[in-house]
Design goal:
The chain is mainly α. Helix content is 54%, strand content 0%. Helix 2 packs antiparallel against helix 4 and helix 4 crosses helix 7.
């Protein structure tokens, strides 16, 4: 049995420890925790959490409330991306952070090369957002076809294509899954569109196609 002095020493050591961090208050956590009947699991994917939420609140597919909940979930996904990865598509630090998360080695020194390496990497954006919370590496797919099959698997992991909270960085990463296209990106500057046109022509010459994250 520990002596009185030993118990006092342990108590003092415990009091000096860093306090337990507060409950995650990121956009996704804030969205899920607003529902009293639902318990958010931070280690589970956002899509699985959402499917559990729908079952917990017992919304029918045609219920207007279910639509409102889904729209709130989409907003939270986009806001979480912005908070985790930034919004400025012209900030090289944002692109280099994405390269690091996607395990691109070495991380390029130029923003153009960072963009190209990230665009050439096939990952699901919902998984990308979740990886920042769970700490698990995001899965990289060998082809767009493999990524599409994975995205359509239940629970489906679609990232909102249009959202009021989208920043410039996210707009550059979004792509079509069901009907993929390899042309110019929307919302890009004239200079960027012209650069993409030249890159597409160069890829066609070697028989390749680029896809974005």
């Amino acid at each position: 049995m520990a002596s009185g002095a030993e118990r006092r020493r342990r108590k003092a050591a415990n009091e000096r420890r860093t306090p337990t961090p507060p409950v995650d208050d990121t956009p996704l956590a804030a969205f899920f925790t607003q529902f009293a009947s639902f318990s958010f699991n931070a280690n589970q994917s956002s899509s699985k959490n959402f499917d559990r939420l729908v079952r917990a609140i017992k919304c029918d597919p045609q219920d207007p409330d279910r639509h409102a909940v889904r729209e709130g979930f989409k907003d939270a996904l986009v806001q979480e991306f912005n908070e985790r990865f930034g919004t400025d598509g012209n900030d090289i630090s944002n692109w280099q952070n994405l390269c690091h998360v996607l395990r691109i080695v070495p991380v390029p020194d130029s923003i153009e090369e960072c963009r190209q390496r990230v665009w050439d990497t096939h990952v699901n954006l919902v998984d990308l957002v979740d990886s920042a919370r769970t700490g698990r590496p995001v899965k990289v797919f060998a082809s767009l076809g493999e990524l599409t099959a994975y995205t359509l698997r239940k629970p489906k992991k679609f990232f909102p294509k249009e959202n009021a909270y989208q920043g410039g960085l996210l707009k550059e990463l979004l792509r079509e899954i069901i009907n993929p296209y390899f042309g110019k990106r929307r919302n890009g500057s004239a200079k960027r569109k012209e650069r993409k046109k030249k890159q597409k022509a160069a890829r066609a010459a070697v028989g390749g196609n680029r896809t974005a994250v």
